[in-house]
Amino acid sequence: MKKTLTLLLIVAYVNAFAQLSTNEEPIGYKIIDGGTLSNVDVELKAGASLIILNSGVLETRYGFLAPVGAIVDVESGQII
Predict the structure, then answer these.
(1) Could you tell me if 4 and 26 are in contact, meaning their C-beta atoms sit under 8 angstroms apart?
(2) Nearest alpha-carbon partner for 49 in 79, 73, 19, 33
(3) Could you say which DSSP state residue 33 is in?
(4) Contact present, 45 and 72 (Cβ < 8 Å)
(5) Burial class of residue 1 (count of CB atoms within 10 Å of its CB; 0-12, 13-18, 19+)
(6) Partners of 9 in the beta sheet?
(7) DSSP letter at 24?
(8) Would you place residue 60 in the very low, low, confident or very high pLDDT band (cuts 50, 70, 90)?
(9) pTM for this one?
(10) Cβ-Cβ contacts under 8 Å for 60 (sequence gap 6 or more)
(11) Which of 6, 40, 44, 59 could be stapled to 48 by a disulfide with Cβ–Cβ 3.0 to 4.6 Å?
């Protein structure tokens, strides 16, 4: 079975003013490094990772879902 590694790296301000939903695939990484990802719905899947560094910000529109098996690591920053 083929596995795919996905990566989304945010280092600036990104405003998803449309209906953007970020559904991470297993073995997916979302890294917010000093930037802001704004106005999104976030639903991680088991095996996916969200890492927030260097005062990064994740601004959710309706909520944030991270089931058992997903990794959420906020070293420096916030989820609002």
Answers:
(1) no
(2) 73
(3) E
(4) no
(5) exposed
(6) 31
(7) P
(8) confident
(9) 0.81
(10) 40, 41, 42, 79, 80
(11) 44
**More reliable by pLDDT, 23 or 77:** 77
Mean pLDDT value of segment 28-34: 87
Q: Does residue 42 register a pLDDT over 60?
A: yes
The span from the CA of 71 to the CA of 80, in Å, is: 17
Residues 6+ away with beta carbon under 8 Å from 40 = 16, 20, 21, 22, 58, 59, 60, 61
Query: Which pLDDT does position 43 carry in this prediction?
Result: 82
Sheet with 28-33: strands ordered across: 6-10, 28-33, 49-53, 71-74
pLDDT of 4 reads: 64
